[in-house]
Amino acid sequence: MNTRIPEQYVKSGKIAREVRQWILGNVRAGSGLLDVAEKIEAEIVRRGGQPAFPTGMGVNEVTAHYAPQEDEVGVIQESDVVKIDYGVHIDGYIADTSITITENPQYQSLLEATEKALQAAIDVVKRDKRIGEIGKAISSVAEREGYRPINNLSGHTVEQYQVHAGKSIPNLYAPNLPMLKNADVFAIEPFLTLPDAAGYVIEGPQVNIFSLIVRRKTGNKELDEVMDLIWNERKTLPFSPRWYSGRFKEGRLLFLLRELEKRRLVTSYATLVEASGKPVAQFEHTMAIDDGGLVILT
Ligand code: MN
Ligand code: MN
User: Is 96 a known active-site residue?
Assistant: First the structure.
């Protein structure tokens, strides 16, 4: 491949594809949310990658940024629409992808419409690098299929150690957006919901994803140790307290993360929930523009 795309992106993408096959063969009604998240992360590590962010398990109206914690008791039901959003990184080069699964016949066509919207967006990028045209394609497929896109969630460019880099890729048409350019690596991720839904997400009560904003000494030994731990393992990539809480007394890590957040050294991501409580489906691929062509990494 004649590529300017770092090889690590290609490897991360390959792992993401293999893990998708693992999910399709293993996750079903009766699976525990925490168990699935942990096993996905283990499958990533087993193949030589690292999780790019905590595995998202979005059930029904829970749309994004819900990562099971140690006390998670949720189990997938046959009626559920479950968005599994996971990422792989190697040296900070990220492949971000998601699929939605359901055993509920009522929502099969919602899933199919969302997959069609992603495919339509990919077809557009092959011939047109204007970001506005991607959103237009997604929303027109949604409308044609009788659904609506979530209007305040977007795809995004990725850069090394940055899941959400400079450019957003909305799921609706918007004017005056930039173009995608050669060597851009980006994720497209339509979220579709029911036609009578509000069509946007609001913050829910749970917060279970964090990331470091910048590495700086605080003068407090305990806080500096947390900073060093996170920086060494994650740099600025999102992480789950679940990954590190075993090294702290119960509740201590969350307290320290809150302290770091007050000092603007750490940021947190609230769970995002469809405003009217309607189920949402999501499909996502990470891809790259390489000498004018499009390479689907995941
Ligand atoms: Mn994702
Ligand atoms: Mn994404």
Answer: yes
C-alpha to C-alpha distance for 278 and 62, rounded to whole angstroms? 9
**193/234 same-domain check:** no
Task: Report the sign of the C-alpha dihedral through residues 104, 107, 111, 113, in that order.
Answer: positive
Catalytic residue among 41, 43, 61, 85: 85
The reply to whether 164 belongs to the active site is yes
149 shares its domain with 196 = yes
Catalytic option among 96, 115, 184, 274: 96
Which residue has tokens 């004018």?
Answer: 292
Q: What is the pLDDT of residues 144-196, one digit of tens each?
A: 999 999 999 999 999 999 999 989 999 999 888 999 999 999 999 999 999 99
pLDDT in tens, 200-258: 999 999 999 999 999 999 999 999 999 999 999 999 999 999 999 999 999 999 999 99
Query: Does residue 102 lie within any of the structural domains?
Result: yes
Domain that holds residue 110: 7-203+276-296
Which runs of consecutive H residues, i.e. helices, occur in 47-106? none
**Structural domain includes residue 259:** yes
Tell me whether residue 156 is one of the annotated catalytic residues: yes
**Residues measured by CB to lie within 5 Å of ligand 1, the ion:** 85, 96, 98, 284
- Please state whether the predicted TM-score (pTM) of the whole model is above 0.70: yes
Q: Are 187 and 214 within one domain?
A: no
Sequence-separated (6 or more) residues with CB below 8 Å from residue 191 = 63, 64, 114, 149, 150, 153, 171, 280, 281, 282
Angle CA(239)–CA(99)–CA(153) in degrees, nearest 5? 65
The verdict on 226 and 125 lying in the same domain is no
Interatomic CA distance for residues 149 and 139, integer angstroms: 6
Instruction: With H, G, I as helix, E, B as strand and everything else as coil, classify residue 89.
Output: strand
Distance 71 CA to ligand 2 centre (A): 26
User: Could you tell me the strand order of the sheet in which 148-149 lies?
Assistant: 148-149, 191-193, 280-282
